[in-house]
């Protein structure tokens, strides 16, 4: 187990939606709706890194059964207070309490989380343990590609974009190729990418759904 010092917890003051939700959610909903359920039961979704639960709640309003986990005590407190339709558990992504989740999930999502992790592969492995056979993993993360990086360099914005001065900021930067490679190495298949925010090839984020 990798310990997280509570002094460096990401703290939530309220249940307000993240700034990225408005441009991510339409594409996320498109990927969620591509997963079909044949037995008439609600599709179960695990939201890893749910923060204050605002995105989990948006998903639940679409008819999904949602469980959210996050390491932030203030985030989980806000989520439990604001969104009783969902279940929330305080847990570290590296040490998920599988016995408390209520069974396996049809879909695991993790939105704008993997870029913050020293060990992103562990997020993928945790998701695998939570999925039903042929279950789907949906990841979102800031988009990085050659054209975008070139424009950042030419406009002098590279240091701002890849800043090391943001405590708790991004430490991993994925392209379509590297994210595909990571998922394939963990035995995921059937990749489908969507992109969100801004203009083509300057997208803010990319989303991928893959099957295990």
Automatic annotation (TrEMBL):
BP term (GO), one: methylation
What GO molecular-function term can you cite, just one? methyltransferase activity
Q: Which InterPro entries match?
A: SAM-dependent_MTases_sf
One Pfam family for this entry, by name? Methyltransf_23
Q: Which UniProt keywords apply?
A: Methyltransferase, Transferase
This protein's source sits in the domain of life called Bacteria
This one is known as: SAM-dependent methyltransferase
What organism does this protein naturally occur in? Pseudanabaena frigida
């Amino acid at each position: 187990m990798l310990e997280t010092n509570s002094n460096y917890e990401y703290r939530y003051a309220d249940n307000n939606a993240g700034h990225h939700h408005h441009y991510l959610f339409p594409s996320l909903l498109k990927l969620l709706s591509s997963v079909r359920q044949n037995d008439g039961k609600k599709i179960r979704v695990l939201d890893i890194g749910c923060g204050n639960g605002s995105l989990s709640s948006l998903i639940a309003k679409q008819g999904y059964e949602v469980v959210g986990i996050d390491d932030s005590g203030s985030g989980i407190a806000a989520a439990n207070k604001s969104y009783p339709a969902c279940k929330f558990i305080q847990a570290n992504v590296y040490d998920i309490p599988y016995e408390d989740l209520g069974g396996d999930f049809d879909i695991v999502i993790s939105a704008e989380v993997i870029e913050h992790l020293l060990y992103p592969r562990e997020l993928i492995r945790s998701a695998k343990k939570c999925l039903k056979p042929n279950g789907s993993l949906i990841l979102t993360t800031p988009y990085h590609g050659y054209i975008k990086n070139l424009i950042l360099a030419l406009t002098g914005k590279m240091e701002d974009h890849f800043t090391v001065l943001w405590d708790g900021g991004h430490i991993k930067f994925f392209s379509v190729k590297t994210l595909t490679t990571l998922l394939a190495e963990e035995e995921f298949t059937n990749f489908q990418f969507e992109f969100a925010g801004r203009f083509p090839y300057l997208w803010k984020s990319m989303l991928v759904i893959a099957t295990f």
